[in-house]
Specification:
alpha/beta; TIM Barrel; 2 domains; 6-stranded parallel beta sheet; two-stranded antiparallel sheet; 16% strand; globular
Length: 271
């Protein structure tokens, strides 16, 4: 199943890349009755103007949903996994995609996720209020950072702007990036003397929606983002901050006006 998915993904990536650099025309031939094969002609215009693009466009995303984490990229005890519990076959497949950055832990999941439950030797399972299942918390911050290193990608962490507090958000930055303080000491006690130096952070996810724990209004969201950003940047002024936004002026313009001076990027969620 995974091989089929990866082959399809690689073909899609190739088609997208060709489309960026030239004119791509697919001309399917008529299938003979009972034939199991599909053929196509591809014509590439080598004289087309080269289009430059930022490789960051091709980032990835993993969430604690269904088998994305457990049984997907992380399966301790499996003969396909390494000593950290990471699926080696998945790592090798994802390396070929050359993803520059991967966002975690959600998605809707993050809006009720408390990062402290997912670090240290003792992990307590928690009820996931987004997807209504129990999460064992055995894959947390440290595992995510190590997995990103194995894949060769930059970690990008979304913080809990639903049921969490701005202090909890900034404490997470301290745990990952500081050398001083209570939470930096906890990281060291957990076996990571050097900071993880997570560069990219997102304040929340789709907190405008009723599908998201901790729904915010158009008036509440910019203020929350501004205050969270200020506290997170006080811990590490070098982080790059995102804030999700809708593809509407009503939601996005106030966010830029009130919190834009604190942000590096606006992440438009449009489907």
């Amino acid at each position: 199943m995974f091989d089929s998915w990866f082959t399809a993904s690689r073909v899609l990536f190739t088609v997208c890349s060709l489309a960026l650099f030239g004119t791509l025309v697919l001309q399917p031939r008529a299938m003979a009755a009972g034939s199991e094969k599909v053929s196509a002609n591809v014509r590439i215009d080598t004289d087309a103007e080269i289009v430059l693009y930022d490789p960051m466009l091709f980032g990835g995303f993993i969430e604690h949903f269904h088998r994305q984490i457990y049984g997907g990229i992380f399966e301790p005890g499996s003969p396909l996994s390494d000593e950290s519990g990471f699926r080696v076959d998945v790592i090798e497949a994802l390396k070929e995609l050359n993803m520059p950055v991967v966002r975690w832990p959600g998605g809707c999941f993050v809006s009720a996720y408390h990062w402290l439950d997912g670090v240290g030797a003792e992990r307590t399972p928690a009820y996931d209020k987004a997807w209504r299942v129990e999460d064992p918390n055995t894959f947390g911050t440290d595992e995510f950072v190590l997995w990103c290193k194995a894949v060769g990608t930059e970690p990008y962490i979304a913080v809990n702007a639903g049921t969490g507090t701005i202090e909890e958000m900034s404490d997470w930055v301290e745990y990952c990036n500081q050398t001083l303080g209570k939470w930096a000491a906890l990281r060291k006690a957990n076996g990571f003397e050097k900071p993880h130096n997570v560069k990219y952070w997102s304040i929340g996810n789709e907190n405008w929606g009723v599908h998201e724990p901790g729904t915010r209004t158009e008036e509440e969201w910019p203020v929350l983002v501004r205050e969270a950003a200020q506290l997170m940047q006080a811990v590490d002024p070098n982080i790059k901050l995102f804030a999700p936004a809708r593809d509407t002026e009503e939601w996005t313009v106030p966010l830029i006006e009130i919190a834009g001076h604190r942000l590096d990027y606006i992440s438009i969620h449009g489907y």
